[in-house]
Structure formats: structure tokens, C-alpha cells
Amino acid sequence: TNQAQSLKSIFYISLLSFSALSTTASCKDSESWFSKLLVRKIEPTKEPHSRMLSDKEIIYALHTHNVRPDSMSNYLNNYKTTVALINDKKANLSCDLVASWTVQVGDMDQCLHLWKYTGGFEKIDQAKEDLWNDPEYLSLMHERSKFLRSRHLQYLLAFSYWPQIASRPGKNIYEMRSYRLTPGTMIEWGNNWARAINYRKHNNEAFAGFFSQIGRLYNVHHIWCTYWLFMPPFIVIYIHILISLVTGYKSLQDRKETREASWRTPGWDECVAYTVPLIRDMHCRVLAPTEFSPTQ
From CA 95, how far away is CA 111, in angstroms rounded? Predict the structure, then answer.
């Protein structure tokens, strides 16, 4: 009896081993959909990730200001004066305002200001030293503090594979999609999006792509430009195709339809499948340029 039970155990073990080998072989033959949900191993490198993904001589500062709901108008006037002051000192400062936005959907009563510093962190240090010794600038900062609930600063680098940032004319709205990635996955994110961005070029909607260098780390910001068109309906219908080819979307509804069309582009779904497991959380904001923003 004991010998029979032993033989039976050996039989079941052999059967399970054969089943496991068969399953392994079939998985090697074709990649399963489940494997796309697993984060692939990133090989160690002696190069910093930021050097592999970007030009470190150009730094972007993203200022996020949460404004008191009853003080938005005063706040915007104050910041407009601050921008004019910095522009007057441009001979001594290597910084330029790229964009200023107010949030229309998402974190309400919030303003975002994107500044560009050419020359690395050395130029940021010089600009801070100059401005913090300027009485007029300090007075504007003191006045602005009365209009704010909180603020946050991130220093960012632009992804090298993203299109060059160019100011947009006319009436546009922008969409900022912000992602917090799992630490150690930035290279894999970059590798996948270097391919994915090609599927979104046909509408000229890509405005900028950044990853954080100082501040909240492993943050990625993708900014898309959306054309906001105010025209009679018959004119909109007549030029809809031309506008979509050269500018982006004409409305939020057009944005929705274009994003849905991206899923029908071969390869887009695969890039999304590989990048979703890298994300810890994400959020989206719809932005409108301020009147003093260089990009509209």
C-alpha cells in the first residue's frame, strides 16, 4: 500500500512538472498580454538618467501658486508687474517666461508659471542672487503673499525626444497631464514615449514634455496644446480639417474625439500598455493662458 501511494505521488509530481514545462514553452513562444502589466527590469548604468534623457544646460522652473479665491485679479496684476520687472533686467538674467496659465479644470484657483533658464543651475543661482537684492522685486513678493494660500516650485528638464517648445498664437487651451512614476522607471518611460510621441504628431498638439530634477521627484509633465476656436458654426465646419492639421483641437469635444482616434493608431495601445504599470498616480488639468503669457 505504501509503495502504491509513493508511485501515485511520483506520477502526480511528474504530471505537474510536465504541465509547468509546457506552460513555460508556450509563454516563450508568444508574449502574453499579462506580461505587459509587469515592469521590466532596468539594467544598471553609470550615466545619470537625466543626462540620457535631456539637455542639462537648459533648466525649467515650474511655479505652482494656489491663489485665494477672492484675490485672483489682484494676484494676476501683481505677477504681470513682476514679469515686466524681470524682463527689464534680462541683460543680467538668463531667464525667460515660457508660459503662464490659470487652471480651468482640475485644481481651481491655481496658476502655473513656466520659466526657462539657459546655462544650467549656475544661471538660476545668479538670477536668485540678483532678484533677492532688488527692493522692488521683494516688495512685489511681499504683496503677492497676501493673495496666496500656498505655492510649490519644481525644477524640470525637457525630454530630448519631445518637439521643441514653440509659442502658439491665437486662442488656445492647454492640457497638462502629470504623472508620478515608480522610482527607477524613468528610462523605461522615456524609451516608450520616444516612440509614442510619433503617434500624436499629426495634430501638432504636443507642446512640452518634462521630468522633475529638484522638488517632487519622478514626476513627469506632458503638456498638450488645444486650439480654442470662436467662429460661426458654418465657418467652423468649412475649415475644420485645415485647423486640425496645423493647430490642434478646436474645442474640448474635438480634443475628446482626437484622443479617441489615437487608440485606433497601430502601436499607440502597446505604448500605453507598457507605460501604465510605471505610474503610481496621475492627474489632469486644463489650462488657459494669462494675458501676459508669451504663448497663447
Answer: 19
Count the Cβ atoms, other than its own, within 10 Å of residue 62: 22
Spatial neighbors of 255 by CB under 8 A, at least 6 apart, are: 175, 226, 249
Strands, E, within 137-246: which ranges?
Answer: 148-158, 172-181, 206-214, 219-227
C-alpha cell at 38: 509587469
Q: How far is CA 125 from CA 40, 64, 196, 229, in A?
A: 38, 20, 35, 41
Residue 285: CB atoms within 10 Å? 20
Query: pLDDT tens across 34-83, in order?
Result: 444 444 444 555 555 566 687 778 999 999 999 999 999 999 999 999 99
Candidates 100, 97, 211, 102; CA nearest to 159 is 211
Query: Which residues in the chain belong to E strands, given as ranges?
Result: 58-67, 95-105, 110-118, 148-158, 172-181, 206-214, 219-227, 279-289
The closest alpha carbon to 274, from 50, 44, 49, 34, belongs to: 34
List, in order, residues 6 or more apart from 56 with CB less than 8 Å away: 50, 120, 157
For residues 110 and 102, the answer to whether their CB atoms sit within 8 Å is: yes
The residue with greater pLDDT, 228 or 129, is 129
